[in-house]
Design a protein that fits this description.
Blueprint (H helix, E strand, L loop, with lengths): L2 H12 L3 H8 L3 H10 L5 H11 L3 H4 L13 H10 L4 H17 L1
């Protein structure tokens, strides 16, 4: 998935629009559609503003994996991982408790 398609996905998750993003970061909303069509990545400063607005790590938007981390192949796992980044530590601990209980079942 390219940068702008991930941005669109995150905007849907947040209930925000391209126009809201563009206004918040001083960017032309038409450039988002253009970026999707060209499969391009914006300038570094714009990409950073986008990641901050969305509350996601820039490396996620850029498809950059930590060299020491194993990247899950399943897109659903990646989606879960990216959503968890927004949760508080207490919420993450609660989710881990549920996951551990389910794992013990099997």
């Amino acid at each position: 998935m390219n940068f702008w398609k991930k941005v669109d996905s995150e905007l849907v998750y947040l209930g925000k629009t391209r126009k809201e993003l563009a206004n918040a970061i001083g960017f032309d909303a038409a450039n988002i559609s253009f970026g999707i069509k060209r499969n391009s990545i914006p300038a570094a400063d714009t990409a950073l503003k986008v990641s901050r607005f969305l509350g996601v790590p820039l490396d996620y938007l850029l498809d950059m994996a930590d060299e020491n981390a194993q990247t899950p192949q399943n897109p659903q796992i990646l989606e879960i991982e990216n959503r968890l980044r927004r949760f508080s530590q207490n919420d993450v601990n609660a989710i881990l408790t549920v996951v551990n209980a389910i794992n013990e079942k099997y």
